[in-house]
């Protein structure tokens, strides 16, 4: 209808696909191995390139190579993309699309080699592509975290699935004999012209997703202590400073807990440093479980932790500290030695308190708890 040259767009698709594959194979080298799916995306693009090149040999090579296999390679490439998206999002990869591809291969063999039905081929391929693109979009929609790159890529998949679905329905409902020569509807043109651009947009979206993931992992590593998972000292001090300023501004209470494991040197000396490390990890996990989502726990030094309790007065902070102290004294994991914790609590209740004096008040309370016999909570 628009008189576009489908052949040219097939060549453009192959060229764009090749560039995307190259990009992903190159980018993958610099990414940590635990950000999965980049290489699989590259392979998916390459499969599509092979499919597109196969279409350009129409009339020169047998239909097996110029029509049948290319018609399967394009959806196989999208299925690889789906696999790559599942790997990236840490989701279980489904075998359903592969099963659908096998069924489509049988149907396609029938309409290619037995009855030579062009319309049948278009129905099978566009139907299969609609399902594959929709499945990719749904996979991204199931991710735990969806930021701009995820929404962008998901939208491209949804739009492409709509184009494919419209093509599928228009051919399914076509009243007449459809051939390669008279297949010139507007949706045919949109289908061919949009494909190379969708491929680039999807690859761009996935690259943005991978980049964003890398950025947040690096940020998280910079903020967290790798052993205990608690915030690092610097990060906690910064948050503490911000929370003190906000609490003052809004006239709301806030408290901190300074916690130190008791007789930790003896644990190290008796059971070794590795067991000592496990005790630290165990303590951080147990304490975190007893905190609210807005509370922040940071590792201040070796076996010393600080908890920041926003919007919490001294009374509530002491209750939290008591819960942590008694949970630790009662917890008895078989692989760890018995250990206890002493806690000093301090609240921002005087307007002259700043970060350092609040920490100092909690520290003094902590040492009062140590002097009073350990395994207890003392308020500043
Ligand atoms: N296993 C392990 N030990 C650590 C780590 N960081 C610090 N330590 C050890 O923790 C011990 C702390 O000992 P002290 O400061 O004497 O305190 P303590 O024995 O707990 O005595 P009190 O605080 O008075 O109960 C030292 O022996 C440090 O070497 C760590 O990351 N892992």
From TrEMBL:
Keywords: Membrane, Transmembrane, Transmembrane helix
Keyword Hydrolase: no
Reactions that this protein is recorded to catalyse: 2 GTP = 3',3'-c-di-GMP + 2 diphosphate
Domain GGDEF stretches: 252-380
InterPro entries per record: Diguanylate_Cyclase, GGDEF_dom, Nucleotide_cyclase, Rev_trsase/Diguanyl_cyclase
Organism encoding this protein: Massilia suwonensis
A family per Pfam: GGDEF
Name of the protein in question: diguanylate cyclase
NCBIfam families from the UniProt entry: GGDEF
Enzyme class per UniProt: transferase
Segments passing through the bilayer: 6-26, 38-56, 68-85, 97-115, 121-141, 148-170, 190-210
CDD domains, A to Z: GGDEF (cd01949)
EC numbers for this chain: 2.7.7.65
């Amino acid at each position: 209808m628009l008189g576009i040259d489908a052949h040219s767009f097939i060549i453009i698709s192959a060229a764009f696909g090749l560039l995307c594959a190259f990009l992903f194979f190159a980018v993958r080298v610099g990414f940590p191995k635990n950000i999965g799916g980049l290489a699989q995306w590259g392979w998916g693009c390459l499969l599509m390139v092979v499919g597109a090149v196969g279409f350009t040999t129409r009339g020169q090579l047998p239909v097996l190579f110029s029509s049948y296999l290319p018609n399967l390679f394009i959806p196989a490439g999208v299925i690889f993309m789906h696999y790559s998206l599942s790997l990236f999002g840490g989701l279980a990869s489904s075998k359903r699309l592969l099963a659908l591809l096998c069924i489509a291969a049988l149907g396609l063999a029938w309409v290619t080699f037995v009855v030579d039905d062009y319309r049948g081929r278009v129905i099978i391929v566009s139907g299969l592509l609609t399902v594959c693109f929709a499945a990719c979009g749904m996979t991204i929609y199931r991710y735990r975290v969806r930021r701009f790159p995820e929404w962008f890529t998901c939208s491209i998949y949804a739009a492409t699935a709509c184009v494919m679905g419209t093509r599928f329905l228009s051919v399914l409902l076509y009243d007449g004999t459809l051939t390669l020569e008279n297949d010139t509807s507007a949706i045919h043109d949109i289908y061919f012209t949009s494909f190379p651009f969708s491929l680039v947009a999807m690859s761009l979206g996935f690259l943005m997703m991978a980049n964003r993931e890398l950025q947040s992992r690096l940020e998280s590593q910079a903020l967290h202590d790798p052993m205990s998972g608690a915030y690092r000292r610097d990060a906690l001090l910064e948050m503490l400073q911000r929370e003190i300023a906000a609490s003052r501004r809004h006239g709301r209470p806030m408290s901190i807990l300074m916690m130190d494991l008791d007789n930790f040197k003896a644990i190290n000396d008796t059971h070794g440093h590795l067991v000592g490390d496990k005790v630290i990890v165990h303590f951080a996990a147990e304490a975190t479980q007893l905190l609210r989502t807005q509370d922040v726990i940071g590792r201040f030094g070796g076996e010393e932790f600080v908890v920041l309790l926003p919007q919490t007065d001294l009374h509530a902070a002491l209750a939290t500290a008591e819960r942590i102290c008694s949970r630790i004294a009662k917890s008895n994991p078989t692989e760890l030695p018995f250990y206890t914790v002493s806690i000093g609590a301090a609240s921002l209740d005087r307007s002259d308190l700043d970060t350092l004096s609040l920490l100092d008040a909690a520290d003094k309370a902590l040492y009062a708890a140590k002097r009073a016999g350990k395994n207890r909570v003392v308020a500043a």
